[in-house]
Amino acid sequence: MLKNILTVGSWTMLSRLLGLVRDQLLAAFLGAGSLQDAYQVAFRLPNMFRNLFGEGAFNAAFVPLFTTTLTKKNQQEAQRFANEAFSVLITLLVIITILAEIFMPEIVRVIAPGFTVDKARYDEAVALSRITFPYMVLICAAALVAGVLNSLHRFGVAAAAYVSFNVVGIAALLWLTPFMPNAAWAAAWGVTLSGFVQLGILLFAAHKAGMRIRICFPKLTNDIRQLFRKMAPGIVGSGITQINLTISTIIATLLPAGSVSVMYFADRINQLPLGVLGAAAGTTLLPILTKALHNKDPNAAFDAQNKALDYSLLLTLPAAFGLFSIATPIISTLFEHGAFTVKDVYYSAQSLQMYSIGLPAFVLIKVLSPGFFARGDTTTPVKIGIFTIFLNLILNLIFMKPLAHMGPPLANSLAAITNVIILAVVLYKRDALSVPFSLLKRIAAMTVASLLMCVVLMSVMHLCFVEIPEQNILYRLFSVILLTSLGGLLYGIILHIFGVINFLQFFAKVTKRILKK
Questions:
Q1: 308: which of 285, 317, 373, 379 lies 20 to 30 Å off by Cα?
Q2: What are the residue boundaries of the structural domains of the chain, listed by start?
Q3: Which pLDDT tens digit goes with each residue over 186-201?
């Protein structure tokens, strides 16, 4: 399982790093103003569907059904089911896309009510949204094919395809911008074009794996009805993080111009460990849990889930405390170029600190949700999700005035923490979660080590690295490398002292693996 998590995580890490390059170009070309706000709102809708379907509800419903069909029947029946799901899904999404293109002005009024006071920003958001929305069809279709590959344990291929999103996005910004009204239009076209590339790569990989996914006449068979019954409530239950982020974006449009942008760049940094660890753990855990439960082996299911908890928190806790402690130099180094100002750096860093508070909870939602989905339960997460959606909305309204750009991220984090606590309690009461005392001790040690690391990093930064955003890029880069290296080394030493990891064994394993290759 660790190998699968690392495989998916490695490709996701590459994708996130390329995403940072893409975001750096967006920051340099557009800064954090009205045009950037308009693009981010235009990207929010298809991106929400991307995360919702690619990492959430669709895989939660499709993968167990496809895996069961493949195991109990045969590959031919599994392919028939995949073709039927593919055809019905595309048909429905094309209809939704056509309606969205027609009524896009009304949709933008709903998702960005604050834009209506600025006609130029509103018109730009409508035009850009019409360009990006077809990406929804392509990425949701790609999610189905990726689900097929994941069920066949081809995790690496499915994860690698998503790298093309950022590759195409970077190319569009660099090469299409001179031919477009502005860089935002080039970025919007890059989003949609990347959808064609991702879907093409995944279809080719499925074909090589023996699954020829084709479009057929859409029919609501019993299998498809069962798929949508399981999928509908899971859209809210699994995609609660994305729904809460969308609510935060809506609230941010009511704040001063640029608030949507500084929150976006903060969230992009926060999404790096979330995407690498949370999505990787959730993607690899679901088929393993499903298989263990199908074989009536609850101990194997508990073991898989506990390993996912352990591996995820081992890296997520220091990432969260680290982001909180050195948010300013990270944002400054990555984005303080071109039109992105020092004020934008400080505002974005403050937003990042609020997001980092909920980072472990965001990851744990990805780890705990498969515990429901593998057992065929998509109803319970939706009930929990509805509660936390309302909680997030209430907290947003409370925080938006006094905290401004920090309010929505803090509301998001608190809602995520509440969500994961309820998920864990419900799983425990159903005897679907059993965390041994030894793992609880490890988690406590990780938390203490992360907290000590945070205190040291903040002290070093304030004593040795003052006015970081005012310095040149080499100074900023040096400070981030030094601080992150110091933090990682300190975290590892403390864990070694606590007995959580053994440095000698770790380096021996790494050396053996290198020599073997």
A1: 379
A2: 2-435, 440-517
A3: 999 999 999 899 888 8
